Amino acid sequence: KKPKLPLTSLQDLCVSDVPSSHFPSQFPPPIQHLCLLLSTRNQKAVLSQPTSSLDLSFGGVRVSRRRWAVLLLFSSYSLCNAFQWIQYGSINNVFMRFYGVSAFAIDWLSMSYMLTYIPLLFPVAWLLDKRGLRLIALTGSALNALGAWVKLGSLRPHLFPVTVLGQVICSLAQVFILGMPSYIASVWFGSREVSTACSIAVFGNQLGIALGFLVPPVLVPNVEDVEKLAYHISIMFFMTAGVATALFILVVIVFKEKPPYPPSQAQALIQSRPTVEYSYVQSILRLLRNANFVLLMVTYGLNTGCFYSLSTLLNRMVIHHYPGKEVNAGRIGLTIVLSGMAGALLSGLWLDRTKTYKQTTLVVYIMSLVGMIVYTFTLSLGHLWVVFVTAGVLGFFMTGYLPLGFEFAAELTYPESEGTSSGLLNVSAQIFGIAFTISQGQIMDHYGTKAGNLFLCSFLLLGTIMTAFIKADLQRQQANAENECTVSNSPSIPVAPLLLAQDNPQPSSLLGMGLALSELQL
């Protein structure tokens, strides 16, 4: 048993200005540590720190049960928006005949998503940092529903401009959606599940693309009667509008700005930063001066731009080699995306387990190139089952790369906002997506599908080489590791009562806290 402490000497020590090195050795270490915090000199040092940093030092981190509901809801309205992106391209020939327009005009319905994203990214990212996640979610889901309802006014062949307007509104919604997966994952999820959460968020968007390949060819058959065709299109548009509206209502009810407590040490550090210190413009400039991030931004744009071009032109490629196979063209697109969803989910789980961001990204990039080469030379063989297999392999790696890029960027750019870094990645993807879609379409028209696909292969090769030069400077993992080490080495001392007593510390109450702590430690 420890000898009872002389109350007078402990009381004097708590309110004195004695350096910690001069604390009497008769006191147990917990009491010495408490007195160190409460002495006049050290009290000033402790209380000069932000409250959030004090909480962080003593492990004030926990995850919220609501996080899965938020993630599921985001994935759902992201799914709906992605479905509306590809619903025209998956039955390109049907809409060409219904509206009496060229294939290039239908391609632009897809490319409108890419075009509107580029100038609007920075205003939306600024709005995210200034007004928060909930406003972004409400705006994105509302625009998604509005665009779906506008399309219902385009059910006559001469109303193509109306369907363009509806698609442009949906493309505006995409700006509020596409860059959010890594941001939601970081704000709501702990360090051991953040990559999985990001993969699930991307998973929803990819599932929407998959359904966009599968559902339109089934709901809108290629019939000759224009009135029947309009009826089938109306069913698809009504279903989309109903789902989008229901999701908007759920966002209003369920979606919250952020959890009550930071879910990770890295997020707690970000929340402890005073608002006045953060400059959105300076953040962008810092990102553009980060050589590793710039390399990743270009390589992400090359890979994702190839995926956008492939998705937009898939119907044209398959119909060229397999006439009358619109449904199978949609199923091939479905195969690409479903296998990619599996790849995205597995890559997220792998990253959470191993943290090998650079190695995983490089391997997936190499396999995307290999998959694209194999797909290019098997498309024209005349065997649909071979195309299904090679398209599935291509999708597993090419689509599975998407969440890897988001998470690798978040690691390289911490503590910058994930919304800003992922937004810049998506700007790169949209620019390359537009360029690749137009270029590959022209190459296919003049030289055939093989030449168009080899065009994409050359840029995937370039992206693979550039990825090899990215250095794995994992700043977010380093921050989590350092703070977990700090927490594990710190005694469990309640900080809040000390803060309440900062203006007028009472020796007797401080002594009671010290004795209680001493008994707990013993």
TrEMBL record:
<feature type="transmembrane region" description="Helical">
    <location>
        <begin position="331"/>
        <end position="350"/>
    </location>
</feature>
<feature type="transmembrane region" description="Helical">
    <location>
        <begin position="451"/>
        <end position="470"/>
    </location>
</feature>
<feature type="transmembrane region" description="Helical">
    <location>
        <begin position="197"/>
        <end position="219"/>
    </location>
</feature>
<dbReference type="GO" id="GO:0005886">
    <property type="term" value="C:plasma membrane"/>
</dbReference>
<feature type="transmembrane region" description="Helical">
    <location>
        <begin position="362"/>
        <end position="378"/>
    </location>
</feature>
<dbReference type="GO" id="GO:0097037">
    <property type="term" value="P:heme export"/>
</dbReference>
<dbReference type="InterPro" id="IPR020846">
    <property type="entry name" value="MFS_dom"/>
</dbReference>
<keyword id="KW-0472">Membrane</keyword>
<keyword id="KW-0813">Transport</keyword>
<protein>
    <submittedName>
        <fullName>FLVCR choline and putative heme transporter 2</fullName>
    </submittedName>
</protein>
<feature type="transmembrane region" description="Helical">
    <location>
        <begin position="164"/>
        <end position="185"/>
    </location>
</feature>
<dbReference type="InterPro" id="IPR049680">
    <property type="entry name" value="FLVCR1-2_SLC49-like"/>
</dbReference>
<dbReference type="Pfam" id="PF07690">
    <property type="entry name" value="MFS_1"/>
</dbReference>
<feature type="transmembrane region" description="Helical">
    <location>
        <begin position="231"/>
        <end position="255"/>
    </location>
</feature>
<dbReference type="InterPro" id="IPR036259">
    <property type="entry name" value="MFS_trans_sf"/>
</dbReference>
<keyword id="KW-1003">Cell membrane</keyword>
<feature type="transmembrane region" description="Helical">
    <location>
        <begin position="293"/>
        <end position="311"/>
    </location>
</feature>
<feature type="transmembrane region" description="Helical">
    <location>
        <begin position="68"/>
        <end position="88"/>
    </location>
</feature>
<feature type="transmembrane region" description="Helical">
    <location>
        <begin position="135"/>
        <end position="152"/>
    </location>
</feature>
<keyword id="KW-0256">Endoplasmic reticulum</keyword>
<feature type="transmembrane region" description="Helical">
    <location>
        <begin position="384"/>
        <end position="402"/>
    </location>
</feature>
<dbReference type="InterPro" id="IPR011701">
    <property type="entry name" value="MFS"/>
</dbReference>
<comment type="similarity">
    <text>Belongs to the major facilitator superfamily. Feline leukemia virus subgroup C receptor (TC 2.A.1.28.1) family.</text>
</comment>
<dbReference type="GO" id="GO:0015220">
    <property type="term" value="F:choline transmembrane transporter activity"/>
</dbReference>
<dbReference type="GO" id="GO:0015232">
    <property type="term" value="F:heme transmembrane transporter activity"/>
</dbReference>
<keyword id="KW-0496">Mitochondrion</keyword>
<keyword id="KW-1133">Transmembrane helix</keyword>
<feature type="transmembrane region" description="Helical">
    <location>
        <begin position="423"/>
        <end position="439"/>
    </location>
</feature>
<dbReference type="GO" id="GO:0005789">
    <property type="term" value="C:endoplasmic reticulum membrane"/>
</dbReference>
<dbReference type="GO" id="GO:0031966">
    <property type="term" value="C:mitochondrial membrane"/>
</dbReference>
<feature type="transmembrane region" description="Helical">
    <location>
        <begin position="108"/>
        <end position="128"/>
    </location>
</feature>
<dbReference type="GO" id="GO:0020037">
    <property type="term" value="F:heme binding"/>
</dbReference>
<feature type="domain" description="Major facilitator superfamily (MFS) profile">
    <location>
        <begin position="70"/>
        <end position="475"/>
    </location>
</feature>
<keyword id="KW-0812">Transmembrane</keyword>
